[in-house]
């Protein structure tokens, strides 16, 4: 498994992961293309490859001392293999390198598996956003400290 920065040539695979994993909440291909081409200066796309096949991606926005994990999507055939952890670790590394002292994310309150995944990796709930998703589901806002100022050592 290899995690690397995404490039424009990854567009079709990343867009397919969006559609297949995020359904109605998937970002349109045009927005993904903007991010991959570097036209969104605070946004970073990372991809994970397994045997040369793109099997997952993560998206983070990093601005000053705050990073936000916007996406992690993993192909179903590669779930529970450590791929999401590798992507999250790469996001954390990129955020720290950019000077962020905390990483935020939103997760659907009905996604117990994702909530447990993030909690096991040091994220704590800090807020809720009612009716955040298109289908009306509430989002749980979680935070992990990355630097000493925010409890991340």
Q: Would you write up a description of this structure?
A:
Keywords: Acyltransferase, Cytoplasm, Ribonucleoprotein, Ribosomal protein, Transferase. There is one protein chain. The longest helix is centred in the middle third of the chain and has 15 residues, at 83-97. The chain has 153 residues and is α+β, with helices and mostly antiparallel strands. Strands 1-2-3-4-5-7-6 form a 7-stranded mixed sheet, sandwiched between helices. Helix content is 28%, strand content 34%. The chain has a single domain (2-150), classed as Gcn5-related N-acetyltransferase (GNAT) (Aminopeptidase), CATH 3.40.630.30.
Describe this protein with a few key phrases.
single chain; 153 residues; alpha+beta; Aminopeptidase; 7-stranded mixed beta sheet; 4 helices
Named at the architecture level, the CATH assignment is: 3-Layer(aba) Sandwich
CATH topology, what is it called? Aminopeptidase
- Helix-strand pattern, N to C? EHHEEEHEHEE
Could you state the CATH homologous superfamily? Answer: Gcn5-related N-acetyltransferase (GNAT)
Task: Give the low-pLDDT segments.
Answer: none
CATH class reads Alpha Beta
What would you call the shape?
Answer: globular
Radius of gyration, in Å, reads: 15 Å
**Proportion of residues in helical segments:** 25-40%
How confident is the prediction overall: mean pLDDT? 92
Domains (count): 1
Lateral strand order in the biggest sheet: 1-2-3-4-5-7-6
Which secondary-structure class do the elements indicate? Answer: alpha+beta
Individual helix count: 4
Give the percentage of residues in beta strands: 25-35%
Largest sheet: 7 strands, mixed
Gap between N and C termini, in Å? 28 Å
Domain N-acetyltransferase: 1-147
GO molecular function: protein-N-terminal-alanine acetyltransferase activity
GO cellular component, one term: ribosome
Family: Belongs to the acetyltransferase family. RimI subfamily.
